[in-house]
Amino acid sequence: MKMPEITKYTEAQIRKRLRQLFNEATSDELQSGLNWYKEANQICKDYALSFKQSPEVVANVLSALSPRNKWLRNVGDTWRVLDAANRNVRPELISVCTFNTNKFKAFDIARNGVTIKKTSPKTHAFVRNIAELDENFVTIDVWHLRACFGETIETGLTPKKYEKLQAITISEAQKIGLKGYQFQAVVWEVIRNNY
After folding, report:
1. pTM, 2 dp
2. Residue 153, CA distances (Å) to 143, 157, 194 in order
3. What is the pLDDT of residues 171-188, one digit of tens each?
C-alpha cells in the first residue's frame, strides 16, 4: 500500500492506533521497549571503547548493517566490521548478514568516520536514538508504519511525512511522560509480537 496523506482525520486515526497498541503492551513488552534503546546505547559505548571510536561511529556502522538483519546478528556483524576495519582487513574477507553495499558502507564509516545524513531520515534517526538517546528523533521503520496505518506501507514515506509521523509519535509519548523513542520501542514490541 502507498502511504496516504496525513490529514487531520488520518492523524487522529494514527494517534488512536498508537495509543491502543501502547496500551496493549504486556509488562514484559513494556519493560523490553523501555530498555531497548538504553541497551543499544550501552552496546555503542562499549564498542566505542573497545575500538577507540565514538559511539556515533559505532551507531552508524550498526545502522548501516541493519537492513534485513536480526538485532543480535546485527550487533555481532558490527563487532566483526569494527574489528576488521581496526586490523585493516578488506571488506571482501568479512561475512555479514545484510547486503554487500551496506557492508561496504559500514567499512567506510568505520575507517573514515563517514556518517549517515539527515537525507536518510530513518537510519539517521536510528543513529541519533542509539548513539545519543536523542529524544528529538524517532525511528520509523516498517513496523512503526504498520502501527500507524494498520497495514504494510510499501511506498510514499516522504521526508515531510516522516517528520509528521515523528512529531505525532513524540507528542503521544510526551502525554504519558516518555521519550518518543521509548514509546516507539514499546509499540514495536507489541506490533511485532501480536500482529
Report:
1. 0.93
2. 9, 8, 18
3. 999 999 999 999 999 999
